[in-house]
Specification:
Layout (H helix, E strand, L loop, with lengths): L4 E6 L3 H12 L4 E7 L2 H10 L4 E5 L7 H7 L6 E6 L5 H6 L4 E4 L4 H19 L9 E6 L2 E6 L3 E7 L2 E6 L5 E4 L3 H5 L7 E5 L2 E4 L5 E2 L3 E4 L2 E4 L2 H12 L5
Parallel strand pairs: 1-2, 1-3, 3-4, 4-5
Antiparallel strand pairs: 6-7, 8-9, 8-12, 9-10, 11-12, 13-14, 14-15
Helix pairs in contact: 5-7
Length: about 240
Amino acid sequence: MKAKLSCVVVDDEPLALELMASYVAKTPFLELAAKFASGVDALPYIIQNDADIVFLDIQMPELTGLELSRVIKNDRPKIIFTTAYESYALEGFKVDALDYLVKPISYSEFLRAAEKALRWYKSFSGEAEKDVPDSFFVKSSYKLIQVHLNQIKYIESVKDYLKICTDSEEGEIITLMSFKSIEQHLPSSSFIRIHRSFIVNINKIKAIERNRIIFGNVYIPISETYREQFNAFFEKRLLK
């Protein structure tokens, strides 16, 4: 399966369209391929391109989301309906929609649906978690260093470099890479971006205090931009 699932967002309400597009943009395993304000405009693009997911409003003029989904009915793309009306749920599942989100849609609800799509595509492609490489190599100081995923605590962006902080003998590893390139090798089930300069391993977090994560004597802030994403990710592991 490819590194990210490509998404199309279709909604005739400008605010709803931008909100869903922003949700896609801040989800590590998704990428926004296109967005449209009508089903009529979206139809040619969806037919001609290989999108993985369509976040599709149901009640739209000219061509409704249900009508559009019947035209493109196939294993790909998968449809996740978005609507203000719960009464459409049954019709949505009749056309084999993957999920159904009722407005107003929170990021945590969006993320649950997106993760459902991710699981479906992993199953569709025959990919299992055990098939994900548990390490990779990076260049550092004229040598190649093997980095094991389960030893990474966090990754920090420092200008054009990355600082990979581990609990291995290597400690901190400095490498010339971008966040985008390294994110492709990090499983979204364990790693999450919490700041424009930090990615953390959720399994290595010992404590969270005042919107910051504590790693020994290092305090990493959870920025406002990524706070909702982090809270939605973390809430699934929070005992209440």
